[in-house]
Amino acid sequence: MKFRTTPDKCFENLPDYDFAPHYVTLDDDAGGTLDMHYIEAGPKNGPPVVLIHGNPTWCFMWRKIMPRLAEAGFRAIALDLIGMGRSQKPTRMKDYTIARHEKWVREAVFDKLQLNGVHFVLHDWGGIIGLRAVAAHQDCTASVTFSNTGLPVRDPNQPITQMAMPGKGAAFLRKFQLYVRFNPFWRHWNMLAAICTSKLPKEVVAGYAAPYPNFRYLTGNRQFTQMLPTRFDNPMLVDNFRAREKLADFDKPFLCLFSDKDIVAPKGHESVRPFIAGAGQREPVIMKGGSHFLLEDVPQEYGDALLEFLHEIS
Fold first, then answer.
1. Active site includes 239?
2. What is the value of pTM for the model shown?
3. Which of 75, 131, 162, 214 is 20 to 30 A from 51, comparing alpha carbons?
């Protein structure tokens, strides 16, 4: 598997981002290895909090919450998914699947970092990938915080009678997929800024663009858009269903932490609360004024709610 590595100079002088880079080396499934990047803050012996971003973000999105977790005594670890941020980036879109992302996260968290009693904080695609990792390592998980994400599923026992998912939302996503598929120069940081309810400073927008000095580094981001669930034959859906089945009796603390201006997964909590024991035991927290990228719009409120939850269950 061929890959690219973003030059270190791209990560200099980013706003509110003063974290040393750390790496774990993972199996690339093709006989080679890949380096996954992560940042860390807080005491090494503190309860581990693993934060997993989605698309098109990277661990830069957690820059304001990391110091607060550290100050509260937690060992905060924010991963960069393979292909994004400071992690190495396979060069072909077909190199990326949700199953591979799940494997890479599981290997990083449980095999390489050897974490136990993990509090997971999951956003966007991090919700799907992270929750599947939790399903396979429930004994090593202490809690889950599920933010502006969801777990779309398909019961494999139900026959597929049509390929395209119905509805305006799915139709819009199919158009979006086509746009990105044929636009290798997709500047996703501009889309992120446009979705936010607050006006992002240009330095912050540049921070989200930093890992991608030219279009050749965008492959992982672009492939995530192609894996959106717009067809019933998407293999992710059955894998998600099986993970949800494994999690049915997972009764550890589970917080759904959402925002009211999210246009991507506004009701994503409904995909887990009726089906996962712990998720159903706690009402979702819906913060006002935050877009899908709520860590940019309501970071103080997000941090307050997360820390209240973690202190309550610790």
1. no
2. 0.97
3. 214
